[in-house]
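R.M. (postdoc): so does anyone remember the format we settled on? I'll just put the structure tokens first.
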């Protein structure tokens, strides 16, 4: 089944979350053939978890810490997330890598911790514009996969990968569906049977073009997931695929 995930990043207070989910539940009530995931900020997970408890919409976190507990000021453990109903965790988003110095080694520990706790990581990979211009896209993606998944085998059905070219994130300039397909194929040849999502300026207008590619197994949506109507349109674009 295709996965359509909304990454809200640092947006929406708990009351705005409540308002969004009230509308969104109604808009996607009849969706049956698509897995839907919302990833609000930590502070909204509690209210979102309560509201989504008996629904077909899953709840994800945007980050986690790999340790179980302890003196890690400002961090959030997987047990804390699990108790709120979280079943997915976005790991290694480019904003965490490049704005907050997250390394492949930390990302690897987070992926391992998620799998040990029974939470499903969405590992994000993707190249900078300089890498792309230098023809290094596949090399960069391969290295991120190798390091991020170091020591792990048999990942089919336990993990999803999101290909998010950094130059396409929040810019209004997505990759072409053909570019995405090319990298997704490479990822599957490298890893075997995993779902690969595309992320980077996805909108209700272009969602179907991506989803019609044979190796695009879903979408990780930022800006266009902040409005319940536009996110619902993207979810519905996936229903027929
Ligand atoms: O980073 C993203 C999702 O994780 C993509 O963000 P945009 O959809 O705003 O480009």
């Amino acid at each position: 089944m295709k996965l359509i995930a909304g990454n809200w990043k640092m947006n929406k207070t708990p009351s705005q979350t409540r308002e969004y989910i009230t509308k969104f539940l109604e808009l996607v009530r009849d969706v049956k053939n698509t897995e839907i995931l919302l990833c609000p900020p930590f502070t909204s997970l509690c209210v979102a978890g309560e509201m989504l408890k008996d629904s077909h919409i899953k709840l994800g976190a945007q980050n986690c810490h790999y340790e179980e507990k302890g003196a890690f000021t400002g961090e959030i453990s997987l047990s804390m997330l699990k108790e709120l109903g979280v079943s997915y965790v976005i790991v290694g988003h480019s904003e965490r890598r490049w704005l907050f110095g997250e390394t492949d080694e930390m990302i690897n520990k987070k992926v391992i911790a998620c799998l040990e706790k029974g939470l499903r990581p969405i590992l994000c990979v993707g190249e900078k514009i300089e890498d792309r211009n230098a023809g290094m896209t596949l090399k960069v993606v391969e290295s991120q996969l190798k390091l991020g998944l170091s020591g792990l085998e048999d990942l089919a059905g336990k993990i999803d990968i999101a290909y998010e070219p950094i130059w396409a994130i929040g810019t209004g300039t997505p990759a072409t569906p053909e570019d995405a397909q090319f990298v997704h194929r490479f990822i599957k040849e490298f890893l075997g049977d995993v779902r690969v999502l595309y992320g980077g300026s996805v909108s209700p207008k272009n969602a179907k073009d991506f989803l019609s590619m044979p190796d695009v197994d879903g979408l990780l949506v930022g800006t266009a997931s902040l409005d319940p109507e536009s996110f619902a349109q993207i979810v519905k674009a996936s229903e027929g695929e």
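R.M.: ...and that's the designed sequence above, right after the tokens. Also worth knowing: Strands lie at 2-7, 34-39, 57-61, 86-91, 120-125, 160-163, 195-199, 218-221. The longest strand covers residues 2-7.
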